[in-house]
Amino acid sequence: MDRETLGACSRSWVKAGCAELQTPHFLPYIQTEIPYSQFFSRHLLSNRPCMFSSSFTQTWSCRSRWVGQDGKPDFHTLLHEFDETLVPVADCNTKEYNSNPKHTMSFRDFISYWRDYIQNGHSSPKGCLYLKDWHMHRAFPEHHTYTTPIYFSSDWLNEYWDTLEMDDYRFVYMGPKGSWTPFHADVFRSYSWSANICGRKKWLLYPPGQEEFLRDCCGNLAYDVTSPVMQDQHHFPRFSEACRPLEVIQEAGEILFVPSGWHHQVYNLEDTISINHNWVNGCNVDVVWKFLQGELLSVQKEIDEWRDTMDSWDHHCQVMMKSCTGIDYAEFTSFLKTIADHRISFLSCPHGNASSETLSALGPHHATFDLQRVAQVLESMLSNEDFKRVEASALGGNVEELLQEIRDTISKSTSMY
After folding, report:
1. Number of H helices and number of E strands within the chain?
2. Which InterPro entries is this protein grouped with (predicted)?
3. Strand runs (DSSP E) across 18-96, as ranges?
4. CA 158 to chain centre
5. How far apart are CA 191 and CA 49, in angstroms?
6. What is the distance between the alpha carbons of residues 338 and 162, in angstroms, rounded to a whole number?
7. What pLDDT digit, counting tens, does each position of 221-259 carry?
């Protein structure tokens, strides 16, 4: 990021996903390399989707190793690499709440199923199985099957979990023609990027806010927005108010950027392998904070009748929120602190700090921008009544002191760079 971009962000902050967006008439297609600042302003800050051409993935080894001359999955090579590895597999023919139930099976058994599925005309008595949400990168870090493009490299979510060495939000998907993912928005309302290694996908995308028209009479989000039941006004009373989705066909090698809060439904039109990252950064961290507040409010409403009879009611609400969303206010604070500490350390010694190639590539102005966004969210948190009731011992440090350290670092960096 350059000084001009940082200055523009500081003068006029555009909150990602907060403004009402209309479904675009076309999807911007990025054919060749563009400046990072251009993607940052046109897509990250404005929270608008785009597609990157296959030229951005042509050097990835997985596009040659995992794909045969016919453009289809190379099962022989895949078996050689992953063999008896246990993988998560979903049954696309079964609905469990608002998703598909998963079970674990060996990679070898999944490939055996997939081969039989193809030979039987893309059908099987076992149903339509879809290998999804597989943490391949974490399980096989030595494989180096792909490289994250610079445009998606400001990735706080995976930076945090890599620091803890506990988890990540990098996934591999492999599924036969006909496999699909029901209507949803990504975890924590994060961004995502999805690259097709082979095969084709069809995406149906709705901008933030449109999901409110896609709820049934009980307030539940639609499972399949293409189902005929959506036309039944008794079941989906506001469906007629929804805009038409943005329909996107993603070809082999292409990368789709899905912004925060864009609900979507995805179909594999062919036998397909894809790589997906969920990610958060300074452009959408406020959206995550807003999402968490909404999740906590839902929990509070659910157990409000026991407020006066339950000891540590606020603590129980936090526990329930974490069980539902995967994070609570204390861990979100830890997340922000980790991101801030890395940038404070980098800005104190940008040329001698080898802790992050990404921070070095994006530069000190981007690190300053990141700290500005962390500071804004921390300020909002400190004025939040529910956050004030979180036990100080759970926060792992003094948030006011962290905020002051961030402000001091921003002041110094602004004068230096």
Report:
1. 14, 13
2. Cupin_8 (IPR041667), JmjC_dom (IPR003347), JMJD6_ArgDemeth/LysHydrox (IPR050910)
3. 29-30, 50-52, 86-91
4. 10
5. 10
6. 11
7. 999 999 999 999 999 999 999 999 999 999 999 999 999
For the chain, the first-to-last Cα distance in angstroms comes to 12
What is the spatial distance between Cα 35 and Cα 5, in angstroms, rounded to a whole number? 12
Supply 67's token pair: 């794909």
The helix (run of H) or strand (run of E) holding residue 375 is: helix 364-382
Can you read off the two tokens belonging to residue 162?
Answer: 């890599």
Distance CA 162, CA 170 (A): 11
Mean pLDDT, range 332-343, rounded to an integer:
97
Return the structure tokens found at 83: 């063999």
- E strand or H helix at 137: helix 136-139
Residue 86 makes CB contacts below 8 A (sequence gap 6+) with: 104, 105, 106, 107
Strand 129-134: give its sheet, edge to edge: 29-30, 50-52, 255-258, 191-198, 272-279, 170-175, 129-134, 86-91, 102-106
Sheet holding 180-184, edge to edge: 180-184, 263-268, 201-206, 246-250
Half-sphere exposure of 389 (CA within 13 A, CB side): 10
Q: Answer with the residue of higher pLDDT: 371 or 417.
A: 371
What tokens appear for 13 in the block?
A: 């902050």
* Pick from 235, 111, 225, 250: nearest CA to 176: 111
Instruction: Determine the length of the chain.
Output: 417
Question: Exposed e or buried b for every residue in 48-72, given b needs 16+ CB within 10 A?
Answer: bbbbbeeebbeebebbeebbeeeeb
Whole-number Å distance between alpha carbons of 313 and 299? 11
- Cite the beta strand spans of 227-349 per DSSP E: 246-250, 255-258, 263-268, 272-279
- Enumerate domains of the chain plus CATH numbers: 23-279 (2.60.120.650), 285-416 (no CATH)
pLDDT in tens, 248-303: 999 999 999 999 999 999 999 999 999 999 999 999 999 999 999 999 999 999 99
CB 148 within 8 A of CB 277: yes
CB 249 within 8 A of CB 200: yes
d(CA 372, CA 11) in angstroms, rounded, equals: 12
pLDDT class of 152 with cuts at 50, 70, 90: very high
Q: How far apart are CA 76 and CA 78, in angstroms?
A: 6
Q: Nearest 10 degrees: CA dihedral of 405, 406, 412, 417? A: 160
Cα 147 to chain centroid distance, Å, stands at: 17
Q: Mapping DSSP to helix (H, G, I), strand (E, B) and coil, where does residue 184 land? A: strand
